[in-house]
Amino acid sequence: MYNLEKTIEFEVKKYLYLECNTENIGINLIGKKETNTAKIKVKILLSKKDINENLIITDFDKEENRLYVDFTKFEGKDNILKADITIEVPLECRSKIKSENGKVSLSNLIGEQSIISENGPVKAENIEGNINIKTENSMIKISSVIGNITCETENSMIKIS
C-alpha cells in the first residue's frame, strides 16, 4: 500500500468563491477564523503507487477571489482504497460543490453554499447563509444554520436540526 499526502495553499481574501468537483473522494470544507489562505489537504491510500502525483486540477483567479478545484480527471483512481480531501478557507466563503460517490461535509462558513451530490451523504453545520442541496441516493443532514435551506433528494432522507 502507498500513502499519498499533499497540501496546496493559495493566498486568498475574505468572501472567497470556491467551486469544487469530486468523484469517488470525500470532501470536507471548513471555515477558519482569521485566515487569508485556502489550504487543500489531500490524503489518499492506494493499493499501488500507480497514480499521477498531479491529481488535483486547480485554478485561482486572484482578481475575482475565485478558486476552482477538480478531483475528477486524474489517472490511477481505480487504485484508491481510501481518500479524503480537506479544504480550509476563510469563514466568509461561498461554495458550489459537485460530488459523485463521496461524502460532502461543510462547517463553519458564512455565505451561500450550493451542493449537488450523487451516492454520498451531505452534512452541513454551523452555516450563516443560504444552503441549496440537491442529491440522489444521498442522505442530507443539516444543523445550526442561519439562512434559507432548500433541499431536494431522491431515494434518501433529509434531517434538519
Describe the secondary-structure layout:
Elements lengths: L1 E10 L4 E8 L2 E7 L4 E10 L10 E5 L4 E6 L8 E11 L2 E8 L3 E7 L2 E6 L3 E7 L2 E6 L3 E7 L2 E6 L3 E3 L1
Give the gist of this structure.
The protein is mostly beta strands and 161 residues long.
Radius of gyration: 15 Å
Indicate how many domains the architecture comprises.
1
Backbone structural class: mainly beta
Record field, number of beta strands: 15
Walk across the major sheet and give the strand order: 1-4-7-3-9-11-13-15
Number of helices: 0
Coarse shape: globular
Mean pLDDT: 92
Measured as a percent range, the helix fraction is under 10%
Query: Into which percentage range does the β-strand content fall?
Result: over 45%
Q: Indicate the multimeric state.
A: single chain
> How far from one another are the termini?
40 Å
| Helix-strand topology string | EEEEEEEEEEEEEEE
The major beta sheet can be summarized as: 8 strands, mixed
Low-confidence stretches: none
What does this structure look like?
The protein is globular. It is built from no helices and 15 strands. The chain has an eight-stranded mixed β-sheet, with no helix packed on it. It has a seven-stranded mixed β-sheet with strand order 5-6-2-8-10-12-14, with no helix packed on it. It has one domain. With 161 residues, it is mainly beta. Helix content is 0%, strand content 66%.
What tags apply to this protein structure?
8-stranded mixed beta sheet, mainly beta, 161 residues, 15 strands
